[in-house]
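Narrative of activities, Objective 1.

The group set out to show that a structural description can be obtained from nothing but a protein's sequence at a throughput compatible with the screening campaign. Below is one input-output pair from the validation batch, recorded exactly as produced.
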Amino acid sequence: MWRYLKAAFLVGVDLPALGRVPVNILAAAGFVILGIAQPAFWLLGLGLETSVIFALGLNPRFQKYVDSQQMQLSALDVDAQRQTLIRLLSPEARDKLSALAGRCQSVLQVYRGTQADEYIISTNQDALQRLQWLYLKLLVGRHYLNTASNSNGDSLSRKIETLEKEVQDPAASESLRQSKAATLSILKQRLSNFRNRSRLLEEIDSDLTRIEAQVDLALENASIQGRPQTISTEIELASDLVSGTLFGESEGTIAALEHRFASAGSSSQKQVN
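Output recorded for this entry:
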């Protein structure tokens, strides 16, 4: 509710030569100035502004407008974070991601051409976005595995040795030891990944091929069968993307985007149900 009231107070109108003018802020400032000469204007201004802000903030149409603006900002933020990850990739990996995105668009175009129900199109669009997100995560994981060097392994080993000693420090608080123990667990998993790079790279390549096949199957089903059906994203991947230890310095960005995509998928599923 507070964000609607805040948006109502900051609402503005576009005026020629002046641009966007925040009407409530200007009105409040005007009543403050008038109140210097006659304090009754302060009470009058408070009453009027409160009534206007609450009336606008509680209006369902205005709330929908605020929600839509927030969704646009969220979408821009998500896209900026995705582009940060994409810039890490090699030209060859970017081409693969672009090709997959093109095939996903082809699937949606076929469904729109057959005039499928809007909820089917929306559900499949979310499913294809989820597949593209999985594909990007795999490419990012492959990037960090390919760029790992022996110095990375030596550095991880040294950090692990240091943390193992610090975790046993009796002078440290319990919360500090727990935090360091959690970090130690992550570093050990990263060291394991480093030592098993060849196997992990094979698993990632296999998963990339599997996602490509899933999108190709969706395109064939839409084109040949000619009847709308939902696209499954339930793919049992060979590589471990859950732990997040494959993503190096991009782990935080991956985790934030994963939360966004998971939330979007849940909302879409609720609408279908």
